[in-house]
What we know:
Blueprint: E1 5-6, E2 13-14, E3 18-20, E4 23-25, H1 27-30, H2 54-66, H3 78-87, H4 91-100, H5 102-112, H6 119-126, H7 130-141, H8 150-163, H9 169-193, H10 200-223, H11 233-242
Antiparallel strand pairs: 1-2, 3-4
Helix pairs in contact: 2-4, 8-10, 9-10
Amino acid sequence: xxxxxxxxxxxxxxxxxxxxxxxxxxxxxxxxxxxxxxxxxxxxxxxxxxxxxxxxxxxxxxxxxxxxxxxxxxxxxxxxxxxxxxxxxxxxxxxxxxxxxxxxxxxxxxxxxxxxxxxxxxxxxxxxxxxxxxxxxxxxxxxxxxxxxxxxxxxxxxxxxxxxxxxxxxxxxxxxxxxxxxxxxxxxxxxxxxxxxxxxxxxxxxxxxxxxxxxxxxxxxxxxxxxxxxxxxxxxxxxxxxxxxxxxxxxxxxxxxxxxx
Length: 261
């Protein structure tokens, strides 16, 4: 049942449950009852659980995924249920995602009402990189959440949490200004004209790396009891050339000048 083979008589790749001319053939060619057919659609082309094929199980899978404690789907999540019925590729992949994805567990919390149906709450709860991006995109495409730039929202959420961990208020202000007036502005301009393969996620990942690099520089300045205004150029050059941040090239200092010149 796990490895259907082409029937030597008709060529269909199905369960070979009959015999003809001393070889296994499908039930149709053998003229025997189709005992393994799905009772929902009559399919004999895939392995099944609980008798039904994956496509016939799809409504049951979605119901179990999205129902609340009463066994009903919340009206707010009904658009997602309708979307999954018709847009989620193969039913087998939906079942695997339900059982193995961390974000499926987050979706269960949304269904049960223990987690607010809001992008910020979902990102706070999930904390799982691209899987949360997939879940947010799924909720937006299905109409459960309003239109949203998912990668930009993820970056903003990360930025607020990350800045809260920066110890000095002055450094937080410098980093926020650098992000707003340099990184985000250049990223928006690049996305407006780019036709290349670079993804939004990759662009925001570069922004995260640049901010962390900038924070390291500010920490170095403070450790030497200097300020942005008094930090010597030779020490800046030494920091840039001796940095252990692999693969990062600094093009703009937090003061707004070109640190490579």
